[in-house]
Specification:
This protein has one domain: Four Helix Bundle (Hemerythrin (Met), subunit A) (Up-down Bundle). It is mainly alpha-helical and 156 residues long. The N and C termini lie far apart (34 Å). The chain is built from four helices and two strands, in the order ααααββ. It has a two-stranded antiparallel sheet with strand order 1-2. Strand 1 and strand 2 form a beta hairpin.
């Protein structure tokens, strides 16, 4: 049984991001499978952590390149998730406590679809509005104005 199943509801029609999200789904399920089998979950967790860092760095780069406001809710969510993942790693390595690792897969399986639907969809829309080509890094609309991903420019 998978924690999260890849489906059309996760597709944002941005190939690079869709592929990254699909990989994240697989890694979340891989961590869950490692935990369920009794195998050492650390390699699966570290693969998920490494992927998540690269995934968020990709999106952060797109935000910077397109004038998406640097201190927006989207970036804040990335920072919070990475902070939690780093704490999970610390608990496992320093305290020999795998309990947080047993919880994080289910939490990410709930978080990712909502994040993709709201935050990532807004970024993909913004990129299309300014004519950003993520493959070349070129903008069709130079000097794109900063965009707020949250209502009124503040996070709730």
């Amino acid at each position: 049984m998978s924690l999260l199943t890849w489906s059309e509801s996760l597709v944002l029609n941005q190939p690079q991001l869709d592929q990254t999200h699909h990989e994240m789904v697989d890694l979340i399920n891989g961590l869950d499978a490692a935990l369920a089998s009794g195998a050492d979950p650390m390699p699966a967790f570290l693969a998920l952590l490494e992927h998540t860092e690269a995934h968020f760095a990709l999106e952060e780069g797109w935000m910077a390149a397109t004038g998406f406001e640097p201190e927006n809710c989207h970036s804040s969510q990335h920072k919070m998730v990475l902070n939690v993942l780093h704490e999970v790693r610390r608990y496992a390595l320093e305290l020999n406590d795998l309990e947080p690792m047993k919880i994080i897969g289910g939490e990410l399986a709930q978080w990712l679809p909502a994040h993709a639907e709201m935050m990532d969809a807004a970024l993909v829309f913004h990129m299309s509005q300014v004519g950003f080509d993520p493959t070349t890094g070129k903008l069709a609309v130079p000097q794109a104005e900063a965009s707020h991903a949250c209502s009124g420019g503040t996070c709730a």
